[in-house]
Amino acid sequence: MSIKPWREIAVPHEDVLKGTFQQAEFAADLTLVHDGKATAEYQNPVLFFERTYITEGMRLLLDSVIRRLSSKGGDPVIQLKTSFGGGKTHTLLAVYHLASAKTAPSRLAGISAIMDTAKITELPKARIVVLDGIKQSPSQPVKHGKIAIHTLWGDLAWQLGKEEGYERVKDSDLKGTQPGKTVLMELLAAYAPCVILMDELVAYIRQFEEGKSYTGGTFESNLSFIQSITEAVKGVPNAILLASLPDSHQAGGPRGVLALNALEDYFKRLQAIWKPVGTEEAFSIVRRRLFETIKDTVAVDSACQSFADFYNTVKNELPSEAQETRYFNRMKDAYPIHPEVFDRLYEDWSTLENFQRTRGVLKMMAKVIHRLWVDNNRDAFIMPGSIPLYDGEVRNETIQYLPQGWDPVVERDIDGDRSEAAAIDNGDTRFGVIQAARRVSRSIFMGSAPTTSNQVARGVDMNHVLLGCVQPGQSVALYKDAIRRLTERLHFLNSGNDRFWFDTKANLRREMEERKRRFSEEEEVRPNIRTTLLVLFAGNHVFAGSHMFTVLSDVPDDNGLRLYVLPPDVAYARTGRSTAVERAAEVLKVRGEQPRQRQNRLVFLAADFDSVGRLKDQVRSMLAWKSIVDDNNEGKLNLDTFQAKQARKSQADAEEGVKHMVREAYKWVLVPCQEAKQGKVSDMEWQAFAVSSSAPNIAVEIERVLKDSEALILEWAPVHLKNILKEWFWKDGVSEVSALDVYQKFSNYLYFPRLKDESVFRAALSAGAASTDFFGFAYGKTNGKYEGFSFGKATSPVLDGALLLIEPSAAAAYAETIKAPDVVPGKPDDVSSPVQPPAGGAPKGGQTPVSPPAGGQKKKRFYGTIALDPAKAKMQFANIADEVVQHFNMRPDAEVTISIEIRAETRSGFDEGIQRTVRENCKELKFGNAEFEG
């Protein structure tokens, strides 16, 4: 079942809907209401209570006021103390409208239930005194006609009884001395029932300097007045005093803290406990103020249930509380604003010095809702990821509470058409369709902007980021992918310990991005790719050699199967011109100035054209991170502990990213081939096979792809060899052919099968030896007679220049001619036997090898030394391996040992860069000993 958008269920109040509200309307002002000058929502008692959610604390307070004014109990003195914007003034206004009795209590929403609980049917009209510390001035009297009021007690008496009331305290007002408890009690009793509302009291008293006298009295006289009035109210059963005091951090400097501490000492003797607005209650306060009454409660329940069900399906990705029944109830209470919005505002933003818990939330959310309504937002809930920071008014309302420097952070990274988050969404349709990057960046901003660097756990964790973004039917994995993309590209986004935060200080990514441009492609990027490939190809594989970006003349032209890895700039493209194929054709054609003979022994690995750019960029990122770490270690950069740790982690991640990108880029195996039919050979063609980047070993994966495509033969049946011999070699009267010549031609010509190595060819020979269907063997032919002839007998022939492969019918005919005559009984067997098999003993499996003609005495050891030209060492060593070493390796019982000794000297000394490079390469190549000496 689809979820209705919030806008189809909850309709904002007209002023929010049209954007005609004024910021001042959210600031409840007790004096303006008392003077009859406030806006309708605060001045009109009916409208005020319609838009006021009566919290538990307010309900208890109003109950006490009703009882007190009716002389049926209640607390005489109530102190309202909570953080800035915690609802103190709004609570005082509720008391004001209730006690003034300008409107019948039955018309005030929520009041009848409170009166019923107190068992009071009629509330007497009370006189109301408003003492506003912001309005009062210690040095400036307030005139009422001909009477000038100087002090708080003078103002109190005037508001209670006008001229008559003032006369009771006139002398004390003129002298600036407080009138005392008895006078004040008589004053209150004369005009009771009465309510005294003191707001911003600390702001007034902190203006008095100790030891100085003002027209409004002294610091001590004002504190004495507070002591006296609290005691006096206690003695009048239908009088009540309510005073609001701020938290210490809002008291206003040392003088304010001094005044606050003194006032608290007097109030705490008689004060009742007032419960401030809770976060859960704030849900209803904000909803009632910003939205009309929601009538379609079924749709609300359906939306909340859909979210609850979805949260259970992805419970491992979200905070544990999101699966609790309590969270479902919180969603219903807060709808259409998601509880995560309130949690971030009341837990994080309310810690900011100037952010007001209720008023600040109302002002911010009014602008948010208006912008979303105008933009036809279709979200199911208003979530942290929905906050339209692209809107100037919303952005300004938000960042005004933050330190300087946040505007460019929001504009460049987080939201707006020119932001990096928008660019990510626009560049990937997976993200763009749900604005994944922007929703994630907004969610991180709302959860991290108020945090500071000295916090133990800075920022917002991954689970809460997702809770602020994802909606039912959307992929959590997609949002996590967007988070990874953002951490790679954003300049002001930081991350650590699975937490994310924005900061006005650019992260190290900007430094890294600037450094990326320093690195030369020829001198640093390509060599690094080559080194990574060398590491990836380390270990055993089918190739006799892997040649990374090697110059053409250094690629041996021998029978070994070789993989030539093309440089990244020479990439393969499926469509259009492919420079990889062109370069591979050059390598296949010549070796230096000589034509290449063994063309069928080369295959090529090429980078994907579309991936090369990302590969180079990743390498540059890795080199940049490495340079940052190195500079910090050498004292050239001054990174803090977190940044240093982040740089090291980023370097490690970038190095892993290079390995991954090399695997992803180098995905095309290019194989040259020709077709031959009826003796006609086609032009050379190129086959391209894709290898998987997720395979554990790239060399093994290439081997698998070549084998599966039959571009490389690892096992070969003798019947295939026979068919090729018949088609290409046993014809035009030729019945025998050199086995070594056949194998050499297999290495040379692309229309022949590409065997892994000589062992595959020899295995096919051995497999066909015992049968008369495939071929016969001999080790030479003299005067029409085959030497070492064998046909239809199991054997392991030695592949050398003497070995002949004989056509089966010719071999059978020859076998008949040398067939031994019957032995006459009683006579010794003096008929000569065929030539014996070669020396060296029978091979495994009990087979009898065919031997070439007997030679001289056998030698058991070989030892040789050679000095190599350093400029041609690679080519020379390859020739030694092919022309000497491989002959020993063909003997299963031969033990071959090769050691290399390298000595290099220079008068000027090797610089640090060469030393570091050589040491790292020797380490990768597993040198036993590699040291530089002085």
In the CATH hierarchy, the third-tier topology of the largest domain is known as Rossmann fold
Helix vs. strand class = alpha/beta
How many domain units?
A: 5
Instruction: Look at the structure and give the CATH class of the largest domain.
Output: Alpha Beta
What level of helicity do the residues show?
Answer: 40-55%
Put simply, the count of helices is 37
Straight-line N-to-C gap: 79 Å
- What is the CATH architecture annotation of the largest domain? 3-Layer(aba) Sandwich
Categorize the overall geometry.
Answer: elongated
Uncertain segments are 826-856
What's the number of extended β-strand segments?
A: 24
Q: Overall pLDDT, averaged?
A: 86
What spatial order of strands do you see in the largest sheet? Answer: 2-5-6-1-7
Task: Write the CATH homologous superfamily of the largest domain.
Answer: P-loop containing nucleotide triphosphate hydrolases
Q: Main sheet? A: 5 strands, parallel
Strand content: 5-15%
